[in-house]
Amino acid sequence: MKDLLTNLIENEYLEKYPSFKEFCLYKEKGLRKKAFNSLHSFIEEAKHWDQNQKKDFVSWLFKVFEKSENVHHILVHPLEENLLKPFLKEWMSEESKDPLPFRWYGLFFNTENRMKYLEKALEIGGKGEQRVLLKMIDMYFYSLWYSFHHISEDLYLGDVEEDKNILLKTEELCIDVKDVHSKKNVIETVDYYQNLLKDWIDFKSQDKEEFVKWCADNGKEYEWTDSYYY
């Protein structure tokens, strides 16, 4: 997957937006001040666009986002707050049965209600929303990682019932994952966290200390048990 700036600069459609093109070129050269001056000019121009012009630009830009990496190089605060977020919210309001604005808002904006936008996109778009499915699964896995990332220090940061529910939701989402490799990875990761949660519950029920030692003594193999020596 190519870098976003490369994809934008190589895209002929960029010629329609001279100020935005300047912004991209200056960003590529690391000229931050000039880049943001050009972006400011572009945003001021966009304020005078009609809805169709805004939709045309936003749709084109997010489609390039979807096939690029390092999106954060372009998805900067002024562009988000002054053009992209407001327009996507208008789009959601006017065309509530279109999954696109919900998909893009959930995929690319790190907002507090991110999961709700993804869930809405999936509800409208169904199984075809594969990027949304995988993003939701990725967010669930991050939550599980956070719960367990200090487990080798006998510190579980999650809630058992909440994590059980997350694992159940992830399994349900996995059913509709089409890519074979991705599906395999999801199944293996779910199995890992299910086993880890079960082992933690068993460990706590025995009122023991030193979870790493307990795992090693009971033949529970995790990467971090390799560091335990008798």
Describe this structure in words.
It is a single chain. This protein is mostly helical. Helix 3 (about 30-45) runs parallel beside helix 5. The mean pLDDT is about 95. The protein has eleven helices and two strands. Strands 1-2 form a two-stranded parallel ribbon. The longest helix is centred in the C-terminal third of the chain and has 26 residues, at about 180-205. It has helices at about 5-10, 20-30, 30-45, 50-65, 75-95, 100-110, 115-125, 130-150, 160-175, 180-205, 210-215; strands spanning about 1-5, 70. The protein folds into two domains: about 1-125, no CATH class; about 130-230.
Helices, strands, pairings?
Layout: E1 2-3, H1 4-9, H2 18-29, H3 32-46, H4 51-66, E2 68-69, H5 77-94, H6 99-108, H7 114-125, H8 130-148, H9 160-174, H10 180-205, H11 211-217
Parallel strand pairs: 1-2
Quickly count the domains.
2
Q: Any low-confidence stretches, pLDDT <50, length ≥5? A: none
Instruction: Kindly report the average pLDDT value.
Output: 94
| Tally of separate helices | 11
Helix and strand sequence = EHHHHEHHHHHHH
* Strand order of the biggest β-sheet: 1-2
Q: Classify the secondary structure makeup into a structural class.
A: mainly alpha
The major β-sheet equals: 2 strands, parallel
3D shape: elongated
Please count the beta strands (DSSP E, at least 2 residues each).
2
| Alpha-carbon distance between the two ends | 46 Å
Give the % helix: 55-70%
Radius of gyration: 23 Å
Proportion of β residues? under 5%
